[in-house]
């Protein structure tokens, strides 16, 4: 991904892969993986979404009413990883009453703001909702707005501890405003799904009669053509 922003040092896993951000777009040739942005209003989910898709910060971002959906693609080594990014509103009641929001989720990203302790406490509620509707998906914990360091009320150590308590696959602090660690976030999303897809492909080779497994059956499922009656 071409950008002039700051990132923390990449981890050892990232060094083993070549990740290239392609951009917004969708093709029926590739499997689509659903990535869900969750968290209360005001933590910057829409700002994260806009930064991921456009490498820009949207100053006048208004709260999401229900759900905004965007498609984008990343190339990992020689494989195209295609995402459908769901940016949902931060209303807990809406989430509880909208199970379709979670159906088919491959990876969920729960976001809090480092300058908002309430949003940090609310992570538990969103994690509980996620476990209720989509227990098998991968989970990331993201602390946004680290450009507001002078107003920080949640330490990085607290975020790391919460990651371990709730068994998140990744914890990362970012800034949608400055772009800090956005590349690392994209790389980790793409590599996590790439690794799991490769593992499933290897399992398919051992079970040839079972057919191709998928991380995301909801997106892969296609209606069967009806046969004409004889």
Structural features, described:
- This protein has one domain: Rossmann fold (3-Layer(aba) Sandwich).
- The chain is built from eight helices and seven strands.
- The protein has helices spanning 12-15, 45-54, 92-96, 117-121, 123-133, 156-165, 182-206, 217-220; strands at residues 19-24, 32-38, 67-76, 79-88, 105-113, 138-144, 170-173.
- A seven-stranded mixed beta sheet has the order 1-3-4-2-5-6-7, with helices on both faces.
- Strand 6 (138-144), helix 6 (156-165) and strand 7 form a beta-alpha-beta unit.
- The chain is globular and about 50 Å long.
- The protein starts with 11 loop residues before the first helix and ends in a 10-residue tail after the last helix.
- Residues 1-5 and 221-230 have low confidence and may be disordered.
Number of spatially distinct domains: 1
Q: Unreliable segments (pLDDT under 50, ≥5 consecutive)?
A: 1-5, 221-230
What portion of residues is helical?
25-40%
Amount of beta strand: 15-25%
Count the E strands. Answer: 7
CATH-level-4 superfamily name: P-loop containing nucleotide triphosphate hydrolases
Secondary-structure element sequence? HEEHEEHEHHEHEHH
The main pleated sheet reads as: 7 strands, mixed
SS-derived structural category: alpha/beta
Layout: helices, strands, pairs:
Layout: H1 12-15, E1 19-24, E2 32-38, H2 45-54, E3 67-76, E4 79-88, H3 92-96, E5 105-113, H4 117-121, H5 123-133, E6 138-144, H6 156-165, E7 170-173, H7 182-206, H8 217-220
